[in-house]
């Protein structure tokens, strides 16, 4: 026992506490992966999988499909996997693993960004603070373009950061390509890209690196030029511009429910926090934005003390402004989903880590207080990790077994290759609005310019309709009347209708 005591005496307290937290993070990561993989599949995930199915079977983006603000890049990204493995739930499950891999890449890239700009201490604090965020765990591994967008953006931001420290036009151009591609995948990252362009302009003027800035802009524009050229070649440019730009606001504002900013911070939310009531994860979700604001204040004050503008200072201010820009953009949205927090959550964790580091540094000036603060922080971190593990496991028990059974039974009624209205998962479509996008959420002005529904049903002589009473109430009057005149409901099935003889 005496030799063991001497052994621990030679381990510095800080390293010992880091080892303890590091060991605790292992089961946390396992629970995060388990939650991300097993959590029940969402209707939006089916929508993006169905788009991939339709692309694989010859449907053209914008012309045959109502894509709205979603470019086909995410569907194209998934296409090789589904072509290789087939369109099945086994492939969908494998796709969740791909989303987990994208999340892992994002975590690693974020760590290196923070390490380069803020230093090692804050980078190591950032990782557990990021992984403990229930918003991150809930939405970062779902089959959505948001997760591909964030991964490509984070890698692009890392390349951009490295390029600013060692300016070369080639590296600047490559960073621009990644950042532009992320914006093309989904425009939700636009506020951060806008702030980055401002930071690039300021930095290039100060450093007189105009060629470097020009290379970044060319790289940023390149994905859009290539995509526009693709749309021009297949004749979809006008429709693409109409759906993605002109109709974007109308399409997004027509949801029947209003989900305000702050909705997900309400307690008793099992889906987000893994349990009812006000668990520690709920308090942590509230803690992050407040701690981040303090961290931003500390960052700005430290920057103002300097008598010169350096690269790290520009990048720190850029990230602080990116947080405010992404957060401020939410005030202009009528419907806010959990995915809107993805560009914000990592910045919350970053600047909250700045706050923790600043607090520890300040306390260390008082004799004996530093060790006490570190031990207290470690105990709190371990308790938070254990709570998160438990809640992640709770969430992972909400699997998709019942959903898979329901789809399998419906596929037995609707053979492969059979057209339906509205569209069904892994079945061909006669109408641009595909499975997973509720027709009732399409504004009437947009719906009226799409192909006539009764005419399409007659053209394809659709044998089956999947129209429940709620959907019937949301369809245009003439469409509902046509369906009632030509189809009859199957007994005992609130959705399936067959054509009248």
TrEMBL record:
The chain crosses the membrane at residues 12-33, 65-82, 94-115, 121-141, 148-165, 177-203, 210-230, 283-304, 316-337, 343-360, 372-389. The keyword Membrane applies. Keywords: Membrane, Transmembrane, Transmembrane helix. The keyword GTP-binding does not apply. It comes from the Bacteria. This is Uncharacterized protein.
